[in-house]
Write a structure and sequence with these properties.
Elements lengths: L4 H6 L8 H9 L8 H4 L7 H12 L11 H15 L1 H12 L9
Helix pairs in contact: 4-5, 4-6, 5-6
């Protein structure tokens, strides 16, 4: 049987979502990195595809390790951020992860 987040929270299985995080997401000043289990069904890129998209948009050559792990992808993400700067990288990511039209309010 599937539990909702509210039920899981009631039993202490998950933490409360920090108010500051919710506000930053609503304001568009935070990029939520979620697993492909959420992004791909929403027709959004997975982590590797997002990194490729950011590099292409910035005109950079992306160097992905063969058979890389998520730690390897994290390293690539940090290298991209170093080369592009945080603001530019976030702007590109935000533009690729923005839903048109946005999801309705919960």
């Amino acid at each position: 049987h599937t539990q909702t987040w509210c039920e899981a929270r009631k039993f202490g299985y998950v933490d409360d979502i920090p108010r500051e995080l919710v506000e930053a997401l609503q304001a568009g000043t935070c990029v939520a990195m979620v697993g492909a289990g959420l992004s791909v069904p929403a027709k959004m890129p997975g982590f590797e595809a997002l990194l490729r998209t950011v590099a292409t948009a910035a005109g950079l050559q992306l160097r992905l390790p063969e058979n890389g792990s998520y730690d390897d992808l994290d390293s690539v993400q940090f290298q991209l951020a170093k080369e592009l700067g945080k603001e530019k990288m976030c702007t590109i990511m935000r533009s690729k992860l923005y839903l048109h039209p946005p999801l309705p309010e919960a």
